[in-house]
Amino acid sequence: MAHPGAPRRFQRVLALAALLLSASAAAAPILMQPLPGATYAQGRYYLIPHPYAQVKADIEQGLAGKDLGGFRGRDDSGPLSSMEFYWAEIGARHQPALKQALDQQANQAADPVLAKALAAGAINRDEHDAFRAAIARQPDYAPEQIKSLPFFSQPVARWSFQRERGKSRRTQSDYGTVMDLSGLTGREALTLVWHGGTDTTITRHFRLTRCMVGVTCFPDPHFEYNSQSVDHADPALDSYLDGLARRLQALPEADADRLMQAYFDAYARGRATATQPVGPAPAQATLPETPVSGIRLPADEADLRRYDNDEWRLLALPDGSLLASGGATQRFVPRAGATPAANGPRQGADAAITREDTAGFGLARALKIAADGQVWALGLREDDGGRTLLAWRPGQRRAAVHALDPQLPQWRIDDWTLPAAGGVALRVGDDLYTMTPQGRWRQRHWDASLRREASDTLENALPWVPSDAIQFGDGLFWGGDRGGYGIDPATARVVASVRTATPKLLFGSRPGNWALAVAETPDGRRLRAVDLGTGQVRFDLETPAVYYTSAAARSARGRLLAVSGADNTVVVIDMAQGRLLANLRAPKDYSVSALAFSWKGDRLWIYARPVGNNDVAQLIAWDAPADAVDPAQGRDLPDQIRCGYSMACR
Prior knowledge:
By secondary structure, this protein is α+β, with helices and mostly antiparallel strands. The chain contains 13 helices and 38 strands. The strands form nine sheets. Strands 1, 2, 3, 6, 7, 8 and 9 form a seven-stranded antiparallel β-sheet that branches. It has a six-stranded mixed β-sheet with strand order 10-34-33-32-31-38, with no helix packed on it. The chain has a four-stranded antiparallel β-sheet with strand order 11-37-36-35, with no helix packed on it. A hairpin with a 4-residue loop joins strand 25 (484-488) and strand 26.
């Protein structure tokens, strides 16, 4: 869903995109609108320390000459608020009183909104203080704040000239602007002269047919016209204005650029948004591939945990066994033997796995486990297909069934978690349902509108970095807008927040102080780790696992992270030291479907299935180095996500 503030930023975004394209020009061009409301165009500029009327009259006289005939003048004088977005920033840079007034406007607009959001729990105190500080530092301002100041409502003298020459197939458009900057910069006399040009070529091709994309082509003789435009200034106009600038002693280019520095800072912000600074990659990002294989599972795994079922889960249990949901929920119990482990010799390695049925689960899907070993499952009743909530412990004969709250729309549960106080919490849109350990249900409403209003006050202060649901496994419902925020399901209030400038965070560890995203960079797709304390990027890792990412798992306190993708690739990263521990490859023609770390933190389990179901699934064990073991402590438990063919990890 698009951000609510996007439409009013659209013109600014287009201008910044054009700035990026013009960054390589030899001179110091700037972008302006040849006519009010027109698309920004690139052109050369001069700052002339003479009154506007004198410079305008001089140019009018020059354009009337025989070498520069055909220009039409136009009076574009008007309030500064209706002109290019960057003039307010330039004015604030040169006039401290104006900047103070703009800052006061921004604070007055934001303070009541942030105070209301804080009182309602839509933001927490840390966010409130951080948001106010960001607004105090914001480099630009909302259009409504600019328009409300009398300074920007005063008319500014501005005159433009245009000329179009050529035939129907090729035209040359020349344009320019003369603008009074004396009041804006606080100088006695300063006039901007800007000009540019566009060469447009139209080509015509005769076509016998017309095609509808994705449908068909049909006979329809017609001419097809294509237009291509390039920046091209008229040499005569360029020479005339260059001579005028020398004659009127225009400011040297370096001095002019300093006066326009706020403009170039706006360009730099656009570039910084497009290319966020990145920390170093893990030191051993080119570890050799290590082939691994494991214990072969029964042939019916292909039906119980189908390749196209994104909803089944693999869960590690405290006793070292595993629980897998799907067509049947079953427990995998490793049996010790003398056979070497898949990734090297190991005494007492597991030689076999016993698969045990667990009664009462029905068609279970998602699985979660509490610190006391209580397993919770979301599933479907076999009789009528309705949603059900199940509870089970190892050794328990049958899973206990808990009825869902009658008010809960069972067909669309967006997220669920296990709160610190026990029980279960479900999220359906902005409604939060919690069930106590005693089985009592309670519903609370999360006021997302207040959160959006608070976020909108930061439109010019912080980037928009949305995340639908970040899985931290800490009992909170997490999302992201100007940063990450966690909602307590028991109170429907934000109780935790993290900084980030990276959108689409999907997984992480608060004790480990990191979050994970699949990021698109100028160099390609990367696995991105973000520091939750600073919001900065720890590293971008280039790995095959970033393509078709299927699963991710972490150890209890986030020391180890495993990610699978590109069919049989699994990478294991030591997040504490920022280094790659393992670059694993499941057997050829296998695809990794699920990952899970053990509670002891010493083993990673890999569930791999054959591509095309030409063989049987395997359960592979990889043992962590002794100095990287990360066992469960208190409520800090191992956690994992599955993506499969869904878009959850895209």
